[in-house]
């Protein structure tokens, strides 16, 4: 039975184009804990997505005009009953909300989840102006460092809410006797995710005649966009004739994506400057499936790995350093698999999607 007089929740996610990737899993985790709460998801045209519970899907956004559409949608939703949640928000969404509103937005009406924020003096000044105009907007963020930026700007309704994943009761069943199967690079191929360094690692394996299986996802992030560095890395990868390499050029259905982590060592050679305090959905996925991680010192992922002993941390992403870490994990794979599984169970508690749902509906 539906909660009496529940306030409708409108979730706006223009880049949600299908049921793959973290854009979908973020919302899927939220909808799974919402029960029969009335939710409408506004997403990309032709997405074909569906969710558990009392969720209506509006395939609304066209890629080329999505910002104009967002302004129009915000303008309409701000005048209707219900709450508005922008699940992947940035500075531009604050600007659009301010332009779309006819007055200061009331507290508890609009919620923005800011996954990360690259601060600069100019951006901070703009945030301060927006906060002065719209102090009622609620900012939600997965780390205290992001929260600090928005609190300093004047957004008094700023809260730390963990990145949502499915609750511990829905954790995958893990095979505690897993053995090593392959080295895995999961998720979108991007410069900031160290894809060039991963290609250099594969090149070393080829030149030294190794027989370590490697699986790479080489899909783009959104709308098949690639930066020039990643395009060059893909061209370099094409020239490497490593017989133990398997590529997955497109995004995968959830079941196939999850299967990649079985028996895997997950490479996350992510940029320190971009991921010093930025949450990685791939990390949460890997540990939820008991996959130990090789990552870079000075990143959020490194702190998680160190806390649980769920992998190894390299000081530099050189091919030799990565190979050394991978070899150590292969040698003691069952031990690191158990530690990764323990980390996954704890992180499912810390990042239970119910915390985000409570923040949006309390």
CATH topology label of the largest domain? Rossmann fold
- In N-to-C order, the SSE pattern is EHEEHEHEHEHEEHEHEHEHHEHEHHH
Distance between the termini: 19 Å
DSSP E strands, number? 13
Uncertain segments: none
How do you describe this structure in short?
With 362 residues, the chain is of the alpha/beta class. It has 14 helices and 13 strands.
Describe this structure in words.
This protein has 362 residues and is α/β, with parallel strands linked by helices. It folds into two domains: 9-164 and 353-361, Glycogen Phosphorylase B (Rossmann fold), CATH 3.40.50; 169-349, Glycogen Phosphorylase B (Rossmann fold, 3-Layer(aba) Sandwich), CATH 3.40.50. Helix content is 41%, strand content 16%. It is built from 14 helices and 13 strands. It has helices at residues 21-33, 66-78, 91-100, 121-133, 144-153, 195-207, 228-238, 254-259, 272-275, 281-288, 300-308, 319-331, 333-350, 354-361; strands spanning 9-12, 39-44, 55-61, 83-86, 110-113, 138-141, 158-160, 182-185, 214-217, 245-248, 264-268, 293-296, 311-314. The chain has a seven-stranded parallel beta sheet, covered by helices on one side. Strand 12 (293-296), helix 11 (300-308) and strand 13 form a beta-alpha-beta unit. The longest helix is centred in the last third of the chain and has 18 residues, at 333-350. The chain is elongated. The chain starts with 8 loop residues before the first strand and ends with a helix.
